[in-house]
């Protein structure tokens, strides 16, 4: 269909037929090694006839996508060498692990990282054996795979990762193979639009290679069966120039692929040159992408047991599944592997023939050794401003109002400025940077936008460093790719809708856990979330926008990976933000509101409080450092407000009651030290929460989480938690806490009911609280607003410290 | 751009200019009512000059998208009347709640459901007041909104819902407005491909209307700024015929919209007629879709405070935000509202002028009264086979092996057959029906596939009732749409990847909770999940495919909405499946493995066990009905296997130890009755788990969940839970449980350590268990397989019942 020519297109590096012949051999070597990994325990070079004992007892792996991945790898190697490109390979069809391993083994990067898997027959034996084998390696591209920044488990994120890697990486080209199965996912379908955020003057390039092998596990693929004209229209519509490489004859395909890659590389170079010459005054270019249509299980068995395999979904996993049981399968396997003529590819020692080995790039140009795929190697610490410069003055607790995220915004503005030159910090979010009140960052940068910009647009620019798109998947995928290649960032999101990326967070947490166990993978910057517009302040959005459960998901992950912070006010949020930006290999979740709210702690008090993660607020307590009658605990900005208002009620109405206030910033302090490194020692926990006094705990999210974190603590039986219990609607802020029993009156009532002896004597106080709630309900029904005394309540007790 | 003509295209129903004039008035009435809802407390018809007191104190709502939605609604009304169409309206830009409410009010369906909101001045006053007001209605389209099956909170699912509604609904046309913000989401980007699953002979039609108003909260939209040629290519690529309606002059736009809708309706009719004449032998047709480009905030204030509003993102929410504070804003609001000339639209009583009212369809043809949008009205019970006919024979516990999902498959096959005529049952899943061993259903039906079918394809057909696509979002969205319009279904999914739809599940749970509180919404069939290919059997996929945390998400929802079942074997799975298909208004999660595993209960024992949801397994216990020394509890198939093997070990090595086995099928039984309707009474719980004996609980998922569910129980302090603790890799089945401490040896050791007095005396037994684990580890490293005695272990104790 295309008859592209590298030389015609600008650079005279067209592959010779001789070179393509060797590339074919290289490809055969990779295919051979891939099949070997799936099947063999021993006899790696087939120097003896294959026996049943040499075949793995459990055949676990995916052949179908692998030859195509190998084909791409071999041709990218040529492109890199011919043009000295800085390139990484993102393998969307992650099941093709055998291929990525085979290629990094062939190019030598694998053995450098894993010397035990040496480039000889013994190393090859171990290479085969370890694959999908206990104590070995997974069957997917994974952290263990050199050159990978993309776990191939859950499909859909390859292209977003690729773009994330390319941002602010002007010399990098990210080749990204997208499987036609993966292409059906939502995240991937949206990811094609990432081109609209990539600036050719400043960023690197992404070369998407849509690999149409036509089938998933047991079905054709949608894109594989699409009319070719529709396919072309679709990618033109997405803004690309699709280049088609289609066929099954290796010789013709090698020529077509090599020439097409030359065209693509020339196009990329031309786009970049024009944009860079224009000094950023560039419009959205039409980037090339490749549609590679090749048979599933290419070069594998055509038929097995009389059924079509090559070019069909039966090639997806192991085309021959009964090798140990069925001699015919064993024979077919041996014939298949010998069809690659291993004796012509590897020398006596089992090493790849030198004239083939030279087809791979060398050193850090090898895709398995490119430092961009081990981003910790490139990571530089951020330059951070002094967060104290952004502190709100809090002369007296609760006396001033402030918007926590607005203070954070000025801090982030300075982070932007300080790292503008390093170009290694970005903020992503779904169209909410301003509405989440981080808009001070727009004093330092803009939103990046490559489509037309109108004169009346606000804070849109080609070189903006804030990325807004109404797709949490893209935000997450871009940021992951950005972090994994050694940079830093923050994802600001509506709390309820961060659940959209739950599964991506799971995968990233797993990646971090495994990476931490690999000495050669260097730490990357943490994945930082600001969850705002949270459950308690959805006054006009209502029930559908109320979900604080992301924290629950996160705490299921490995303890050393996750941190959850609930700063009660702006100064605490500043400390937490600064802290999170300094950490690595973690997932940090910060939950903080954007609405005006009372401020509790001056900056030095905030620092001390946040460093401890949890603390007794002496100024709010009246237990004078002795054993209290009741502990009022809180975590989260709104629960803190309601708790302090409840304490105020108690102190007004029952001044003899000794109340202690404990505030939790770092949720992980609640767990025992055995469970989490931030866990408070039991002695300290008991000292804060007492061994036997009632504890009324007001928590931001689902109350059961607090029980789950504390069930091992001494005083757990006396812990009474209030939080979000899925009651919500369009209503006032105070009515929301009332609906969920988290309001000051309910908390104070709980305290009264739980303190022995108090319940009866304080019946009149409880009655007064009940009446106050009823009166308030009536008031808001009439006016649509909370009572002024609720809206304007302020902590009246001064500071005791 | 288009100059379509209804009459030219086939049906002579072209709108007259006079009719279009009245439609313009109808549209103005809807816009007027929309603005009124956002702003006014009183003076609904503006019969007096507007005062500050008549304006809401908190202005909460979204104007921007609303006039476009109203425009569409008015024109769909004409189309319905002219052609007597059965049509519902899915409003993707859910923020446009005021528009949907306004239109259902104008057509009368609103007042029929909510008589208090009467069609007169007093009703209009209440209509305005209730909007986004405490005690009132949400600002989005929501369950409270007549005619809606789609909550407008979280964006992305409109089109998938629309297709779900259209499947098996041959007479229905689902008009689906997709906002250009929503169009950026992953789920929506994938949803366009739903056309490849819609059979024009059997299914209804979806008419997507992409509403390009160009802006989100604070940004342009990607699709809104795309070159028109790319936009056209994109939708041609997706397989549609895009029809463009673009402009801002109402008169021209009315003509263009009316004529374009005629074209679209004629195309739909022609496609359906051809397909139905061909008796199903139809190929994928090119369905029409409409691109409607109109100004954001159309007909609202052009400028406010000197800044561009109409046609810009500033129109997104309330264009005039300081009406109470700023007299100029008040003046602008009044002028804006009066520009619709309410006195010409509503009569003396405040009722819509009769010649305008007649523009709406009548009765059930009104989109707010169409029973498809209140699917419970149409829901028929499924015809269900006798699940006992699919039972596995289990003469003795543990003696036979069986694949649980395979048995379920034959049951589902019969469900398919029995309801083939009713056409109200579908199975959705991401390409895994066969790999999850439900393939018996293919004896009764096929996978639906509208793209080309090759001779060698397997179980693909135009009229298949199994829907496979590699997008969990589409599976979920389609099924929700199908259920919400009164049908039944099952979603079969890899356990780990169901997290992809976490946020959709949240929204559906919220929808069900609110719907249950509305008398007029009839119950719909439950959303049923089969989660298989679960965490314990990911031998070759490894760590990235291991996540049992969906259950944790689900139990955060309202107790009366959710059920979680962990059937330990095939017969229990049969009961659970049958049970779930009989329920309504719930989310049922079934977790069950697909691999061959020992079978424990005959069908009658399974029925008794599952009906109770939890039970003492006497045949596995040796406590003879008396107080045991230790309770070995389990939930999930693999934990049950390991628990019984542990009990076997204990009985062999410590025959004097009295062991009780408790198995949990219905996870909700663990909660107290106050927390969940299925919760076991405390007395019964204590009787099962004892008041003070150690309980070793082997659980399928994250262990903390069991603590969370049981922390209120008497014996909680003695409960020791093992489950998945994020340890996993590519390894054998038994090694997986070993890695997580859930294996038989570890469980038996825990029991020994927890039974007072036993720990010291049984030291040799513990030592033997330790050595067994070490030996096993060595064995699998050598062979890649579990030891034969592990693989072949069978319960040796016969049945005691």
UniProtKB/TrEMBL annotation, chains A, B:
<dbReference type="Pfam" id="PF09364">
    <property type="entry name" value="XFP_N"/>
</dbReference>
<dbReference type="InterPro" id="IPR009014">
    <property type="entry name" value="Transketo_C/PFOR_II"/>
</dbReference>
<dbReference type="Pfam" id="PF09363">
    <property type="entry name" value="XFP_C"/>
</dbReference>
<dbReference type="InterPro" id="IPR018969">
    <property type="entry name" value="Xul5P/Fru6P_PKetolase_C"/>
</dbReference>
<dbReference type="InterPro" id="IPR019789">
    <property type="entry name" value="Xul5P/Fru6P_PKetolase_ThDP_BS"/>
</dbReference>
<dbReference type="InterPro" id="IPR019790">
    <property type="entry name" value="Xul5P/Fru6P_PKetolase_CS"/>
</dbReference>
<dbReference type="InterPro" id="IPR029061">
    <property type="entry name" value="THDP-binding"/>
</dbReference>
<dbReference type="GO" id="GO:0047905">
    <property type="term" value="F:fructose-6-phosphate phosphoketolase activity"/>
</dbReference>
<dbReference type="Pfam" id="PF03894">
    <property type="entry name" value="XFP"/>
</dbReference>
<protein>
    <recommendedName>
        <fullName>Probable phosphoketolase</fullName>
        <ecNumber>4.1.2.-</ecNumber>
    </recommendedName>
</protein>
<feature type="domain" description="Xylulose 5-phosphate/Fructose 6-phosphate phosphoketolase C-terminal">
    <location>
        <begin position="594"/>
        <end position="795"/>
    </location>
</feature>
<comment type="similarity">
    <text>Belongs to the XFP family.</text>
</comment>
<dbReference type="InterPro" id="IPR018970">
    <property type="entry name" value="Xul5P/Fru6P_PKetolase_N"/>
</dbReference>
<dbReference type="GO" id="GO:0050193">
    <property type="term" value="F:phosphoketolase activity"/>
</dbReference>
<feature type="domain" description="Xylulose 5-phosphate/Fructose 6-phosphate phosphoketolase N-terminal">
    <location>
        <begin position="16"/>
        <end position="377"/>
    </location>
</feature>
<keyword id="KW-0786">Thiamine pyrophosphate</keyword>
<dbReference type="InterPro" id="IPR005593">
    <property type="entry name" value="Xul5P/Fru6P_PKetolase"/>
</dbReference>
<keyword id="KW-0456">Lyase</keyword>
<dbReference type="InterPro" id="IPR023962">
    <property type="entry name" value="Phosphoketolase"/>
</dbReference>
């Amino acid at each position: 269909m295309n008859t592209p020519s590298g030389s015609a297109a600008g650079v005279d590096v067209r592959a010779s037929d001789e070179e393509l012949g060797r590339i074919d051999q290289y490809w055969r070597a990779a295919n051979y090694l891939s099949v070997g990994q799936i099947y063999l325990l021993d006899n790696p070079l087939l120097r003896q006839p294959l026996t049943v004992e040499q075949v793995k007892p459990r055949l676990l792996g995916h052949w179908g996508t692998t030859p195509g991945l190998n084909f791409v790898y071999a041709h990218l190697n040529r492109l890199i060498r011919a043009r000295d490109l800085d390139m990484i390979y993102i393998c969307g069809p992650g099941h093709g692990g055998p291929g990525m391993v085979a290629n990094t083994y062939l190019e030598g990067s694998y053995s450098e990282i894993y010397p035990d898997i040496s480039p000889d027959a013994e190393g090859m034996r171990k290479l085969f054996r370890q694959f999908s084998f206990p104590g070995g390696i997974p069957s997917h591209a994974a952290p263990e795979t050199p050159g990978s920044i993309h776990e191939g488990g859950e499909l859909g994120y390859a292209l977003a990762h690729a773009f994330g890697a390319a941002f602010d990486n002007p010399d990098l080209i990210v080749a990204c193979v997208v499987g036609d199965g993966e292409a059906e996912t939502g995240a991937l379908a949206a990811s094609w639009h990432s081109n609209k955020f990539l600036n050719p003057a400043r960023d690197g390039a992404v070369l998407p290679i849509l690999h149409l092998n036509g089938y998933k596990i047991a079905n054709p693929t949608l894109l594989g069966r699409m009319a070719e004209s529709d396919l072309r229209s679709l990618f033109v519509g997405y803004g690309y120039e699709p280049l088609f490489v289609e066929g099954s004859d290796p010789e013709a395909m090698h020529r077509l692929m090599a020439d097409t890659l030359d065209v693509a590389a020339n196009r990329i170079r031309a786009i970049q040159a024009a944009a860079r010459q224009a000094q950023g005054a560039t419009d959205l270019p039409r980037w090339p992408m490749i549609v590679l249509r090749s048979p599933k299980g290419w070069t594998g068995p055509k038929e097995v047991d009389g059924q079509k395999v090559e070019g069909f979904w039966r090639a997806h996993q192991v085309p021959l599944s009964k090798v140990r049981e069925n001699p015919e399968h064993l024979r077919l396997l041996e014939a298949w592997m010998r069809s690659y003529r291993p004796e012509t590819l590897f020398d006596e020692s089992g090493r790849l023939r030198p004239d083939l080995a030279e087809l791979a790039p060398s050193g850090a140009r090898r895709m398995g050794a490119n430092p961009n795929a081990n981003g910790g190697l490139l990571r530089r610490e951020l330059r951070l401003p002094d967060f104290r410069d952004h502190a709100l003055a809090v002369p007296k607790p609760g006396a001033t109002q402030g918007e926590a995220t607005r203070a954070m915004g000025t801090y982030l503005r300075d982070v932007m400025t300080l790292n503008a030159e390093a170009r290694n910090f970005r903020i992503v979010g779904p169209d909410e940077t301003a509405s989440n009140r981080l808009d001070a960052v727009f004093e330092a940068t803009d939103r990046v936008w490559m489509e037309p910009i109108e004169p009346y647009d606000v804070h849109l620019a080609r070189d903006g460093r804030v990325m807004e798109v109404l797709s949490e998947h893209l935000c997450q995928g871009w940021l992951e790719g950005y972090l994994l290649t050694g940079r830093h960032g923050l994802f600001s999101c509506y709390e309820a809708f961060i659940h959209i990326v739950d599964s991506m967070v799971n995968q990233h947490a797993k990646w971090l856990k495994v990476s931490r166990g690999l000495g050669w993978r260097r730490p990357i910057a943490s994945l930082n979330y600001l969850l705002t517009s949270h459950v308690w302040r959805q006054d006009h959005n209502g029930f559908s926008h109320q979900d604080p459960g992301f924290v629950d998901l996160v705490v299921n992950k490995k303890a050393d990976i996750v941190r959850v912070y609930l700063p009660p006010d702006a100064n605490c949020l500043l400390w937490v933000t600064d802290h999170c930006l300094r950490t690595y290999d973690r997932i940090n979740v910060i939950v903080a509101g954007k609405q005006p709210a009372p401020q509790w702690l001056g900056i030095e008090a905030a620092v001390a409080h946040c460093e401890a993660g949890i603390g007794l607020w002496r100024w709010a307590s009246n237990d004078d450092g002795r054993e209290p009658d009741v502990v009022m605990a809180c975590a989260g900005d709104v629960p803190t407000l309601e708790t302090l208002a409840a304490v105020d009620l108690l102190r007004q109405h029952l001044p003899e009651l000794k109340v202690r206030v404990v505030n939790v910033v770092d949720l992980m302090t609640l767990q025992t030290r055995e469970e989490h490194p931030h866990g408070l020692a039991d002695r300290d926990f008991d000292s804060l929460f007492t061994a036997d006094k009632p504890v009324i705990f007001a928590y931001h999210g689902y109350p059961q989480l607090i029980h789950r974190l504390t069930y091992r603590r001494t005083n757990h039986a006396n812990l009474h938690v209030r939080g979000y219990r899925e009651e919500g609607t369009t209503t006032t802020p105070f009515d929301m806490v009332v609906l969920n029993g988290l309001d000051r009156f309910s908390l104070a009532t709980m305290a009264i009911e739980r303190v022995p002896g108090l319940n009866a004597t304080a019946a009149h106080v409880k009655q007064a609280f009940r009446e106050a709630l009823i009166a308030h309900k009536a008031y808001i029904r009439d006016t649509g607003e909370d009572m002024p005394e609720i809206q304007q309540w302020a902590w009246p007790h001064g500071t005791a410290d």
